[in-house]
Amino acid sequence: MRIRLVVAEDSYLIREGLRLLLATQDYVDLVASVASLPELTAVVDEHLPDVVLTDVRMPPGDRDEGIRFAEGLTSSHPRIGVVVLSQHLEPDWALRLFAAGASGRAYLLKERVGDAAQLRNAIESVAAGGSFLDPHVVEALVRTRTRQAPSPLASLTPREREVLALIATGLSNTAIMNRLVLSERTVEKHITSLLAKFDLDPADPQVNRRVRAVLLYLSSQNP
């Protein structure tokens, strides 16, 4: 079944580029394309799409409209997924986007929308109720931010910190196992332990807990 999508982007060139790109994809139907938050609210209420692909900044305020819209959908239309596009790395926006839960939420840099496979991954993930955090975002944040005390990282062992840093770069359990030359059971044990130390709800799906752990890791850093 094709995913019904609404695009919200105030830049005509980017909006048209997305329209042309999505027109070539057989997994999605673009049902509307708008340039402002009021228009987005109206078309979502009218069409009830599966996913919204939205810029962070849009008229009328050009500040954080995309994030606020995603926050509002949590209560008004909880089944609609949201992929937020950002021109720049903004850790506070990423933290806000996932604050109410990682299910059905994705955060991508605009420079990545030309990567059809990456865009599809984000859209399909949120449509299925999952989450997606651009590996380029977390890689850059990990590179440019340093540890601050006190930190939720303080209770982690050196190996658990190493595993969490690799999770933050988007690596799977298998990739972490190969990188650190550990057994799969040992990697799973470290991940279970660090998630417990972050006091994350065991009832959350593991993918959501991993995203939350990464966000806690990034929020404990300072430029």
TrEMBL record:
InterPro entries: CheY-like_superfamily (IPR011006), NreC/VraR/RcsB-like_REC (IPR058245), Sig_transdc_resp-reg_C-effctor (IPR016032), Sig_transdc_resp-reg_receiver (IPR001789), Tscrpt_reg_LuxR_C (IPR000792), WalR-like (IPR039420). SMART domains: HTH_LUXR, REC. PROSITE patterns: HTH_LUXR_2, RESPONSE_REGULATORY. Residues 4-125 form the Response regulatory domain. It holds the Pfam family GerE. The modification 4-aspartylphosphate is found at residue 55. Keywords: DNA-binding, Phosphoprotein, Transcription, Transcription regulation. Residues 149-221 form the HTH luxR-type domain. SUPFAM superfamilies: C-terminal effector domain of the bipartite response regulators, CheY-like. It comes from the Bacteria. One of its GO terms (biological process) is regulation of DNA-templated transcription. This is DNA-binding response regulator. It comes from Acrocarpospora corrugata. The lineage of its organism: Bacteria, Bacillati, Actinomycetota, Actinomycetes, Streptosporangiales.
